[in-house]
Amino acid sequence: MSSGQAVGKVYLVGAGPGDPGLLTVRGKSLLEMADVVIYDALVSAEILALINPKAEKINAGKRRGRHSLLQAEINQLLVEKAHQYAIVVRLKGGDPFVFGRGGEEMADLVAAGIPVEVVPGVTSGIAAPAYVGIPVTHRDYSSSVTFVTGHEAAGKYRPLVNWPALAQGSETLVIYMGLHNLPQIIAQLKEGGLKGDTEIALIRWGTTPQQEELYGCLDDIVQKVHDTGFSAPAVAIIGPVVSLRHRLTPTRPMVY
Known about the structure:
Blueprint: E1 9-14, H1 25-33, E2 36-39, H2 45-48, E3 56-59, E4 62-63, E5 66-67, H3 71-82, E6 87-92, H4 102-111, E7 116-119, H5 124-131, E8 145-149, H6 163-169, E9 172-176, H7 182-191, E10 199-204, E11 212-217, H8 221-228, E12 234-238
């Protein structure tokens, strides 16, 4: 599509947590039809393999300390590609609107007059614990769950999550991107009243064949991370539901 023709459409597609079996039917269909796919670092190779072989593929991945493109550059790139192609897929790990910056990208696209459709994806904060037998809610253990980022944007309107308040505000905490700041997060949660023996699970590369888990309590998990070399990307689950992993052992999906 040339720039003189009608503008194309951008699809903000959630790739899910990694297992290609958790990609939505709508997401798979769009990957197969796409003219261009701009994808994130955490999208698995198996899902990237589903992309239309004739499509232009652009890696816009961001990992701690290593950014292929700045967010403003990605936003502008989406606008530019919508003037070149009919079907533009922005492929994001997990769900576009759960700590995925999908709202920022959509705002710039709408402001530029670009049609946008959001295709939700399964978020790792639900899928990763499910794969190890940890339900984030349970009638006997947790009637509330809070999803929170452990890595905030510099210069944001409110620079700090109120961790002491969250300690008493929810029975289950699911923390995304919090491994680097885990010592400080745990100190503030304990300041807010969580006991040191509160159970915590760390799940790295959840739902993939590379999945790794590390279990402990608030008092010892930081030392365990140090001793084992456990590293990001990982999601943390804190609360009494973590203990259910001893009783709930789901059958793992077939290796893809």
